[in-house]
Amino acid sequence: MKIAWIGTGIMGAPMAGHLMEAGHDLVVYNRSKKKAQNLVDRGASWAESPAVAVDGAEVVFTMLGYPHDVEAVYLGDDGIVNVAAPGTILVDMTTSSPSLAARIEKAASARGVRTLDAPVSGGDTGARNATLAIMCGGDRALFEELKPLLDTLGTNVRLMGGAGRGQATKMANQIAIASTMMGVVESLIYAEKSGLDPGAVIEAIGSGAAASWSLNNLGTRIVTGDMEPGFMVMHYLKDLGIALEEAKAMGLALPGLALAEQFYRSASGTGWDRKGTQVLYEVIRRLNGM
Amino acid sequence: MKIAWIGTGIMGAPMAGHLMEAGHDLVVYNRSKKKAQNLVDRGASWAESPAVAVDGAEVVFTMLGYPHDVEAVYLGDDGIVNVAAPGTILVDMTTSSPSLAARIEKAASARGVRTLDAPVSGGDTGARNATLAIMCGGDRALFEELKPLLDTLGTNVRLMGGAGRGQATKMANQIAIASTMMGVVESLIYAEKSGLDPGAVIEAIGSGAAASWSLNNLGTRIVTGDMEPGFMVMHYLKDLGIALEEAKAMGLALPGLALAEQFYRSASGTGWDRKGTQVLYEVIRRLNGM
């Protein structure tokens, strides 16, 4: 199959690689060409722009940064929605705004171009090992058609509803994590302040009702003082901003999310944009003069 | 061994039963005798008061309600700290205040009475199946002496530090759950408001970074509209109150905990004291006029 891949960063590059390994014919584009070089060395064609990449492709995948990047690539001058041939399939795997995904679908379908929003969860490890969860929004027939390709990239590939519902599911994921992280870091700080060994506390409570992926993975990193990113504060803060904006548009108050977002903003303001999300621990410690 | 068990409610009764089954000689007391009847029918002796129960016992277990119950039974007129013979071991398994546990230990050791705080996690199921996590605070030699008895009641029995450190660990457990529950219910409400099927969302996100015991167990109950108690709001609210009080005494601000406590207080004020903690979902839905 002739596939275009736009956005070959830490997530996109290994994902595009899996499609090449599966025998597909790949054209790649990335803002910085350097990050696509490895794929080009392995046989992918290089395109000088998204519009060039899309030309002649049956399916186009995008894995970009912020919603404004998605908007520019899809709907801007020379946007791929406008230059793609009717019948082309556009799959946005960026974590982006549900309402933007719906807007893109509307503009695309007016031109006979089909779209699927398909954000992922599982991080760079999931991208490398093709074990991502992929949450899709769009037409069922299109989803079924794309499922074999998506199964090349992940292990938990689901259609959640129409256009934007993949993005909305990813937001539900990020919302659950936000307050869970508050609970994890407050629990460990309380433990520390109480004179307990936080590592021993994780062992004592980490398999019962307090158990969470965040406690057992990021909590363990916190205990060893490891603030290196599995997922960076700046990227998480982007997602929390989208979630709050969408909630606002729906007239929905989510006080736990709003509170967590403020403390992640504090992490960013402190200069911790490139630390892992577990740096929330340091934010709440500082809040308490620790 | 001659053992006294004070407090034979939904947790205490099956726990005392395990000790009887292990061959120990049991004396029981409970405020309402009815709840001890089954144990008496199975061979336990009935005592008319805590002081009578303690008379001649080598080890005394208590599983009570509120910290003021613990204070009354241990330190009140005829309190067991004052009537127990020197050398008696007192084990409080109530979830209670860390600082009260330390006060009890101090008063007891002045009389040559030994104490261990040993709150549990795992609920009535864990109590019945003897799979509780038991978090202990006290002297190491005493802990080692009691470990075989505690292993009769649970599967994850740990010494966390000196007097009160078992209770502090249980508080860390409840603090982690508080904000995790906020994340779970806000995630599911966002999903619902977005037109997603919340059950499908749990399947999509419940095994990745958003995973938690709360999401996969209580979230699933929420989706089916089941608000019956695994753990009651009124009991959880007691624990959150203790945690906030202890944090205040340490000069520790825990904004996520404080926020969650307010919404659980709202659940209580709405008349949902005897609902399960997952009723937080209904609190946040109401907050949004849903």
Radius of gyration of chain A, whole Å: 20 Å
Q: Mean pLDDT of chain A, as a whole number?
A: 97
Write down the CATH topology of the largest domain in chain A.
Answer: Rossmann fold
Q: What is the level 1 CATH name of the largest domain in chain A?
A: Alpha Beta
Question: What is the domain total for the residues of chain A?
Answer: 2
User: Would you identify the CATH H-level superfamily of the largest domain in chain A?
Assistant: NAD(P)-binding Rossmann-like Domain
Class derived from helix and strand content of chain A: alpha/beta
Spatial shape of chain A: elongated
Description:
2 copies of one chain form a homodimer. With 290 residues, chain A is an alpha/beta fold. Chain A has 2 domains: 2-161, 3-Layer(aba) Sandwich (Rossmann fold); 168-287, N-(1-d-carboxylethyl)-l-norvaline Dehydrogenase, domain 2. In chain A, 53% of the residues lie in helices and 14% in strands. The first copy, chain A, has helices at 12-21, 37-41, 50-54, 67-75, 80-83, 98-110, 123-129, 140-151, 165-193, 198-205, 213-223, 233-249, 255-269, 280-287; strands spanning 2-6, 25-29, 45-46, 59-62, 89-92, 114-117, 120-121, 132-138, 154-161. In chain A, strands 1, 2, 3, 4, 5, 6, 7, 8 and 9 form a 9-stranded mixed β-sheet that branches. Chain A is elongated and about 65 Å long. At the A-B interface, β9, α9, α10, α11 and α12 of A face β9, α9, α10, α11 and α12 of B.
